[in-house]
Every structure is written in structure tokens, then in C-alpha cells.
Amino acid sequence: MKKNTEPKTYPPIIFPRADPRDLARFDPRTKTCSMNCGPHALDPRTKAERMLLCDECFVNEVTTMATCDALGKIREARALLRDEAKTANSRELAMVLTKLDEAELWRQRDMQMKEVPQNHTAA
Ligand SMILES: [Zn+2]
Questions:
Q1: The domain containing residue 106 runs over which residues?
Q2: Which site from 10, 42, 63, 92 is most exposed, i.e. has the minimal number of CB atoms within 10 Å?
């Protein structure tokens, strides 16, 4: 029987790329990757680009988040309503708490992006 000596071929790995504008605005200090894997040898992306696209990363609480008024109020409201939820046994209240969790995550994600320079090139 003739041995198959053809080298095995694999389909090329597709690395999803980030929007360059998002990448330029992304602050890598705001994320810590929970996966301790290094980049693939063929991966053309920088660490920042991989982190921007990673859904497994933890959010790092950076100074701007700790002092953010909106985040502070969302957390305050959630803490107050969570206390109330312990005795209220209300499905609506539980849903509101879920929404407040979402609001906190949305705000944190938003704050992982640096401020866009205003009218930098517009004339
Ligand atoms: Zn990650």
C-alpha cells in the first residue's frame, strides 16, 4: 500500500480584526485577560487589539471609573434596590436589578474607550 506523503493542509486561521478607530480609542489598562494564552504565531494583532476583541477579559476598575458620577449612582441605586429586593419578592424589582447590572457593564465598556479628540481634522 502506497503511503500518503502529501503534507496535511489546514484552512488558514482567520483572526478577527478590530475597527482601527475603536482600537485607537481603546485603553488597554481597562482590561485584564483571564486567559493566560499567548498569541498564535501567525496572529498579526497586537496585544491591545486582542484584548479589545476578547470577551473573556475582566474589566479593570481604573481611576476614571472609580470617580465616574454615573457609575457611582448606578451602583448606589443597585445597592439600595438590592436591599429592598431581599424582602420585596418582586419579579419586576429583580428585572430592574438585572437592568442596573447591564447599565454598569455598558458604562464600563464605554469607559474602556478614551475620549475622542473633538474636531481634530475637521476644518
Ligand atoms: Zn481576554
A1: 68-114
A2: 10
